[in-house]
Amino acid sequence: MTLTLPSPASPLKIGTRGSPLALAQAYETRSRLAAAFDLPLEAFEIVVIKTTGDNQALIAADKPLKELGGKGLFTKEIEEDLLSGAIDIAVHSMKDMPVAQPEGLALDTYLPREDVRDAFISPALTSLHELAEGAVVGTSSLRRRAQLLNRRPDLNVVEFRGNVQTRLRKLSEGVADCTFLAMAGLNRLAMADVPANPIETGDMLPAVAQGAIGIERRADDGRAAEMLAAIHDGETGLRLAAERAFLAALDGSCETPIAGLAELHGSTLRLRGEVLRPDGSESISDDQTCPVEDGAELGREMAAKLLEKAGKGFFDWKS
Ligand SMILES: NCc1[nH]cc(CCC(=O)O)c1CC(=O)O
């Protein structure tokens, strides 16, 4: 098959949200594609798409994101633009992507994964272990909140949202002693001046797919499929297959505290998974290995095992 490559006259349209992190990820995708096919950057057009999530997050800046409404809050408009042909590919943080895509779309290309760890961010402290009794921690992530309270029931968790600058300002105002972000985002934005220290995965298991960029396309677009295959990272693909199968079998949404991480050691895949009660009162976890090609199966098995241990109502909020 001969591929009609994009050109400055007929560029490949790359859709993305407009946040600094989303743009950095779109630029990375563009440079990898340009390098793989020896094309000028002008053969690609970055199309910024405003999503319902972006609008609502601006309007209701203090509300927990989970109260702003349903699945696909940050992806609906982008996927509509893919299906209509307004864009050709879309770049996403895989951590924010539902486990299944709408009919007609495929999401199976991943760039090499960044640091998977969470970052501990504090102007005064360098690690979780330095937090004093009763310290105030700021996060809007249900997973991080539940994990923190599970290990440290004495901590006070306050709702914390916004970009890095907003969070740093809140910290300097004394609103909280620390906050958390993904190392991946900080690294991609080259935010060297942020007081961030990585948290080892044994202390805080990351979200499924944290640090991974995924690229979505129309399932029947042969050109996009072939171009994306050239920049796909197979190792990230194997790891996400295990993690996303785990998440899918748990029926996880962004409203359930779930953590999962797959790592490759030669031909062996190690999968760690954790589910927590939203209030942090209970954590159930597992740590297993399998041959690399069996990761998805292990993910499903681990999910079934954890769900059985958890029992009904485990994810319900206690009032
Ligand atoms: N939910 C927001 C989100 N989605 C992806 C990242 C960071 C980058 C990544 O994990 O790929 C973040 C912010 C954060 O958790 O700090």
From TrEMBL:
EC numbers listed for it are: 2.5.1.61
Q: How is the cofactor bound?
A: Binds 1 dipyrromethane group covalently.
Q: Record's Pfam families?
A: Porphobil_deam, Porphobil_deamC
Show the GO MF annotations: hydroxymethylbilane synthase activity
The chain positions of domain Porphobilinogen deaminase C-terminal read 239-307
Question: Where does the record place the modification S-(dipyrrolylmethanemethyl)cysteine?
Answer: C254
Q: Does the UniProt entry include the keyword Transferase?
A: yes
Q: Which top-level group of life is the source organism from? A: Bacteria
Q: Which reaction does it catalyse?
A: 4 porphobilinogen + H2O = hydroxymethylbilane + 4 NH4(+)
Which InterPro entries does UniProt cross-reference here? HemC, Porphobilin_deaminase_cofac_BS, Porphobilin_deaminase_N, Porphobilinogen_deaminase_C, Porphobilinogen_deaminase_C_sf
- UniProt domain Porphobilinogen deaminase N-terminal: residue ranges: 12-224
Keyword Nucleus, does the record have it?
Answer: no
Its keywords, alphabetically, are:
Porphyrin biosynthesis, Transferase
> Could you say which cofactors this protein requires?
dipyrromethane
Q: What else is known?
A: The porphobilinogen subunits are added to the dipyrromethane group.
Function, as annotated: Tetrapolymerization of the monopyrrole PBG into the hydroxymethylbilane pre-uroporphyrinogen in several discrete steps.
User: Of which family is this protein a member?
Assistant: Belongs to the HMBS family.
Q: How does it assemble?
A: Monomer.
Q: Please give the name of this protein.
A: Porphobilinogen deaminase
